[in-house]
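User: hey, got a sec? need Type I phosphodiesterase / nucleotide pyrophosphatase folded
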Amino acid sequence: MPDPAWHGVLVTIAEVVPSLLSGLDVPGADNTLGLPAARRVVLLLVDGLGHELLRAHAAHAPFLAGLVPRDIDAGFPSSTATSLASIGTGLLSGEHGIVGYTFAIGDEVLNSLSWSRAGDHRHDLRKALVPEVVQPHPTVFERAAAAGVAVSAVAPMAHRGSGLTRAVLRGSWFRGAAGFGDLALGAAAAVRQDRSFCYAYHPDLDTIGHLYGPGSPEWVLQLEFVDELAARIAARLPSGTLFVVTADHGMITAGDRVDFDTEPQLWQGVRVIAGEPRVRYLHTSTGEVLDVWRELLGPRADVLSREEAVAEGWFGPVGPLATDRIGDVVVAMKDSAVVLRSQAEPSWNAMKGFHGSRTRDELAIPLLVHMT
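Assistant: Yep! Here you go:
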């Protein structure tokens, strides 16, 4: 059973890329993580590879487990789009404003992964909600490129030109990957020249975890493939390349399931509900929502007002960009509970693995360093 809550460590995912760029002499990039300096750097982000999951299944990942482990904090919410934005901007969610899987901007609820209307992937919002406006902060990749570093991103082909790519990865030269082979070769090719940085992203471990549950036989076999991928990337890198592996979040297996769509008590006073099953943002029309949700969910969740969550430091420093997107009430599920929407979000109903909340199993991610 995951810890009820985890308050994280002193360093976060937002510090990873600035620390790596420090060794590439990028102005303003501070090496707060104390990482080795190198003129060529590859950062592999494995979606869903939580620190606790890797530790529990180390026998199935001999290459990764053989690297000196260090756990850092993914930041809240522990969700893919949020963490990728932190990787790309060097900021936490309260500053970059990508506060989760879905969140409200004005009258729209944005699915930040597909950059579409929540619940309707066919409704592209890249024109209505311009990615460079939704996340206006300069990226660390733009800063590196301006300093003369050759910056590349190797990720699934479908990510080319996507809203999230434009919002958080701009400044990098994008190379689409169809599978393990071209991801590995693309990452190696991206750092052939002096002063080069490559960000590589692999999504499938997270997908398998959602479908079958983290630690399932399917997940463990996928971890073995990921370990082999990392080993093969390392073997192909030029001598003197710094190879770093991290993740965006961990994952838990769902237990208690609360269905918002069939629980009328939870509807009262809620104008908009956003987020995902492990963390919900409630935009309210009455002040009673906080008490109703606290009473109904009880020990299964931390239910805080926006002001309380901000004061607790859940989002890091919070600027005006993120304030309204957080909602009036923040619901962070504890242990293994989830809040589903069986009718409005049917794709979650059959899933077993989830993330987004504040347990150590979700927030703790590995930082693994290898010098070729």
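Quick note: The two ends are 38 Å apart (CA to CA). Let me know if you need anything else on Type I phosphodiesterase / nucleotide pyrophosphatase.
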